[in-house]
Amino acid sequence: MFSFFKRFKGSKESDTAADESLAAQDGATPEAEAVEPVAPAEPVAPAAPPVPPVATTIIEPQPEPQDTGLDSVEIVPPPVQDAGAKRSWLTRLKSGLAKTSSNLTGIFVGTKIDEDLYEELETALLMSDAGVEATEFLLESLREKVRSERLTDPQQVKIALRTLLVELLKPLEKSLMLGRAQPLVMMIAGVNGAGKTTSIGKLAKHLQSFHQSVLLAAGDTFRAAAREQLAVWGQRNNVTVVAQESGDPAAVIFDAVGAARARKIDVMMADTAGRLPTQLHLMEELRKVKRVIGKAQDGAPHEVLLVIDANTGQNALTQVKAFDDALGLTGLIVTKLDGTAKGGILAAIARQRPIPVYFIGVGEKVEDLQPFSAEEFSDALLGG
User: Fold this and answer.
1) 126 labelled ligand-binding
2) Which among 20, 106, 131, 337 is most buried, taking Cβ atoms within 10 Å?
């Protein structure tokens, strides 16, 4: 592939012209005859250089990106993922959802299909933060399925519930499409503590596995050490980070979009300041950032993602609604599913605000962030 960073060498004619220009400044031409030496003129002090304006910091290094053109790239499970890696991911997913799963799967052991089973199942779903609406929907659908298919074994009921859960979560399963613009600008939001900056670093590495060049913008200028944290991920992934120690986050991101366009970067991800949805004046700042991105590049941002912490349960659903109303979300990244007893929150999101879940995270490692699959998630949740 050709590199986006093309280096141009001047022609011989341009070099000769430059020599003539420099010689002319000294009062001679390249063809001039030799003359008698004269006393040197009094040296003229060079003019003081102008004071440079305060500029956005470009934190290098940035590797030469690979030229993939504007062909669409669909982010599905990684292109080079052998069976062993797949099993490893499913094992980590099941381990992460074990607490939620144990509350659900135990109901179907040594029991019979009666009203007590449905009541226990209702309690378990509510405890997993599936929410009232999703719980009622699943139970009503399950009762009908048991009647219509004349199910008599509790394990058959569990399989039926798994089928219904897959159908409920399937609308959340959507691939992230790259290559629609250059750069593809992604604005990433989330409250402090949700794992936003860490998810950006992991996602940058994930995109690089699809041969995408990446540039990061440290737009979280209010949180202490947010810039440094993103810079560490930039160094780790060999990715450029555009940042300022302080200032307007919209201005930092505007500069980053310009830098990404000049360098022909594939994907530019903007880290935005953590916001609580109840802080209306701060949410307005995010709206401003989105408007400024649109001025920096027509049609941008192409993706507006929200990072949510699965452990916050129904509060995460509240965040999804608030940020979606303010920004128009295109996707979600659900973090910290490892060890949570509230994995049912995805069912609540699917029922009340079905925004695509592009990625889920079940650990601290880079490979612990993977595309969401409704079937894999349902199997892990119900011990399939």
Assistant:
1) no
2) 337
More confident residue, 139 or 14: 139
The annotation status of 336 as a binding-site residue, yes or no, is: yes
Nearest to 210, CA basis, from 308, 76, 306, 47: 76
Residue 275 marked ligand-binding? yes
User: Does the annotation place 67 within a ligand binding site?
Assistant: no
Could you read off the pLDDT of 111-128 as tens digits, one per residue? 899 999 999 999 999 999
User: Which tokens go with 141?
Assistant: 């659908």
325 marked as part of a ligand binding site:
no
d(CA 197, CA 305) in angstroms, rounded, equals: 12
pTM of the model: 0.79
Domain segments of the chain as ranges? 83-171, 178-374
Q: 178-374: what fold? A: Rossmann fold (3.40.50)
Q: Is 192 known to sit in a ligand binding site? A: yes
Residue 338 among known ligand-binding residues? yes
Is 191 marked within a binding site?
yes
